[in-house]
Backbone:
């Protein structure tokens, strides 16, 4: 009955997925678990949940998959729905917890990797505070509540069979001044990547007249990221023809690059 009430409460609630670890009446940390485990091996990690409020709370933990769209939207999917899901290999020590005010509990996550797979895999645990029961008012058929939920990402990393590969599928000039570029990046390997780099602006003689850094960004195997890069320099480029090159370091044995022509017109007036 309590479980049915929980799902009813979730159906009538507004789900708030929090990106930080200490809002609402509970704190969850860390929100990302990296678990090194080769095929045929087991790895583990843990996170903690703390009741930061003044009343007892019930916390429910459920297993899911997750994905990020090219434009950066976070998607929560049914467990086991992705090709590289590790949800079927995951065991966690508690699916429901009762926490007194100030109490802290540790949840252990174990991943047992089959022998016939290679590369990185991932899943997600949603850690949700159960809505507190409220007195029913006569004639009230539904109540909207906010459900505070944290997403704990699980990344199983294969230390033996990882292949770091990536491509720039396209580069588009959004606007010339201030310079904005849209880069289509694809992780074509089987491992999680953290990519960073530099954008260089070269004149017709091939000399670099300006450069700026590309902040690190993550990507999962098979993931396409559309990254907007902007030159934040205050000084505009002089009139002329240029070539813009994005040089990205994804952690592999080589750099990848893409380029686009750029023309700065003469000032009006």
Residues:
């Amino acid at each position: 009955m309590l479980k049915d009430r929980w799902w009813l409460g979730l159906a009538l609630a507004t789900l708030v997925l929090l990106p930080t670890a200490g809002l609402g009446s509970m704190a969850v940390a860390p929100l990302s678990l990296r678990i090194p485990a080769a095929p045929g091996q087991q790895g583990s990690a843990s996170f903690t949940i703390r009741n930061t409020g003044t009343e007892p709370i019930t916390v429910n933990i459920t297993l899911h998959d997750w994905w990020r769209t090219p434009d950066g939207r976070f998607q929560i999917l049914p467990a086991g729905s992705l090709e590289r899901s590790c949800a079927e290999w995951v065991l966690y020590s508690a699916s429901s917890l009762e926490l007194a005010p100030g109490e802290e509990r540790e949840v252990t996550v174990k991943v047992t990797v089959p022998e016939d797979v290679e590369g990185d895999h991932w899943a997600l645990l949603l850690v949700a505070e159960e809505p507190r029961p409220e007195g029913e008012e006569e004639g009230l058929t539904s109540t909207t509540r906010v459900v505070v939920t944290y997403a704990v990402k699980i990344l199983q990393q294969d230390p033996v069979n990882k292949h770091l590969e990536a491509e720039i599928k396209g580069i588009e000039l959004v606007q010339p001044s201030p310079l904005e570029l849209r880069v289509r990046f694809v992780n074509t390997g089987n491992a999680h990547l953290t990519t960073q780099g530099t954008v260089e602006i070269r004149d017709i003689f091939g000399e670099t007249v300006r450069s700026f850094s590309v902040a690190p960004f993550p990507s999962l195997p098979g993931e396409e990221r559309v990254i907007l890069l902007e030159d934040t320099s205050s000084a505009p480029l002089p009139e002329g023809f240029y070539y813009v090159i994005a040089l990205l370091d994804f952690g592999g044995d080589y750099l990848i690059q893409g380029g686009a022509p750029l023309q700065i017109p003469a000032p009006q007036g």
